[in-house]
Specification:
Distance between the termini: 25 Å
Oligomer: single chain
Number of helices: 9
Order of helices and strands: EHHHEEEEEEEEEHHEHHHEEEH
Number of strands: 14
Strand order of the largest sheet: 2-6-7-1-5-4-3
Strand content: 15-25%
Shape: globular
Length: 405
């Protein structure tokens, strides 16, 4: 089987290379926004969408125009990749997989991609990129496989390169033969059906006061002034730190679970629905808005979908499986006798069956129900059950036993 894998490193460019990368990212942003504006104009005029094969003619015209001749200074392939990205965005829109494409802003997700022409010298920790030359990078791991493309991006004033490789490996066979049910939540991030509990890292919550202080400082400064820019960079760095802490924890936890279990059963949670605002409308105001907003922050602080994504691809690489089950009633059902009632869940952490008297931690009971549902899915011949739950419990009642994503 073929495996696609990305290796991300921090670049160490000199002054001229950094200026060139900013110009290249700006040129790609310009091409994307100008193409999107033309598509919008044609749509308003009642014309059909212009595909990538015809958008390339626009790029040739812009390079020949006196006003936009500066596009010639940027490498051609990253500019073409931008048009492919816009074409893919429209296809996702037409197939109802994404919303309408939006304009790119300066300083947000500045990046450009090379589909070929990349040379890697791992012995000297450097990479060669078209029109940039050799650039040193911080080599933290060995790159394996054939280099397919490289994406250069900027975050918090630092430049990074993400190298995607492809390699052929034999069909993997998982070292373990066990099957586990995983239940995720807010009070306890992950609870396994064997009783193992993993506490949440809560990276946003632990940095929330510091972030609020910096944001208040930024709001008191003149917008776009030097002091405003300094404070903005501090806010960006703190957001990056919060994200890095969360991602590091999720990678370590998902790797541990994936290594030890061949089959992992999780719930198909709709995080966007669970974290919707309760503010309501002007005519009909919501209830418990402050409490619900706090719960929403706690839910989004966990990274449940990222956890699910990591489990899925790591199990694929190791020859395991991830089974996704319907999340309905997993926290209300007795794992011993199967009796289902809302009253069984007596508190946030305690479960007591009103039918048979079975008592257990609510999260462990939910994880065992998830495991049982996974066995049932396999018995019915289904390797995976994706989405479309008939009923999802309210976030307020399921905030601790919400399963892994």
């Amino acid at each position: 089987m073929k495996i696609l894998q990305a290796f991300k490193f921090q670049l160490r460019p000199n002054g001229q290379q950094e200026r060139d990368m900013r110009r290249f990212a700006g040129a790609c942003r310009f091409v994307f926004n100008k193409s999107l504006a033309l598509q919008n104009e044609m749509h308003e005029a009642g014309n059909k969408y212009v595909p990538y094969t015809r958008m390339t003619a626009w790029l040739v015209e812009w390079k020949g125009s006196p006003e936009t001749q500066w596009l010639k200074e940027s490498p051609s392939q990253p500019l073409q990749q931008v048009l492919k990205d816009l074409d893919r965005a429209y296809k996702n829109l037409f197939q109802k997989r994404a919303s309408y494409p939006r304009y790119k802003k300066r300083g947000q997700n500045d990046s450009f991609r090379y589909p070929q022409g990349v040379k890697l010298d791992q012995g000297n920790n450097r990479i060669s990129l078209p029109k940039l030359g050799w650039i040193s990078y911080r080599n933290s791991r060995q790159v394996v496989g054939e280099v397919k493309n490289a994406t250069v991006s900027q975050s918090c004033g630092k430049w990074y390169v993400s190298i995607q490789t492809e390699r052929e490996v034999s069909e993997p066979q998982h070292e373990s033969a066990s099957m586990i049910g995983v239940d995720v939540g807010v009070a306890k991030f992950a609870t396994l059906s064997d009783g193992m509990i993993y506490e949440p890292v809560n990276s946003f919550k632990s940095n929330q006061k510091r972030l609020a202080k910096l944001q208040r400082q930024m709001s008191r400064k003149v917008k776009f002034s030097k002091n405003w820019g300094k404070t903005k960079r501090k806010v960006q760095n703190l957001h990056s730190r919060i994200n890095n802490i969360r991602r590091d924890y999720l990678h370590k936890l998902s790797t541990t679970i994936s290594k030890n279990h061949a089959m992992i059963v999780i719930e198909d949670l709709k995080v966007a629905n669970m974290s919707k605002s309760a503010a309501g409308t002007v005519s009909q105001r919501g209830r418990n808005v402050r409490a619900k907003s706090g719960l929403n922050r706690s839910i989004l602080d966990q990274g449940w979908y990222e956890f699910r994504r990591q489990l899925e691809y790591k199990q694929l690489w190791r020859g395991g499986q991830v089974i996704v089950i319907n999340p309905a009633y997993t926290s209300q059902k007795c794992a011993c006798c199967g009796y289902t009632a809302k009253e069984n869940r007596q508190s946030q952490s305690q479960f007591k069956c009103l039918e048979c008297g079975y008592t257990e931690n609510a999260d462990i009971n939910g994880a065992r129900n998830i495991l049982a549902a996974g066995h049932a899915a396999l018995a019915c011949g289904g390797m995976m059950q994706l989405g479309h739950p008939l009923k999802q419990e309210p976030a307020e009642a399921n905030q601790t036993s919400v399963c892994t994503l």
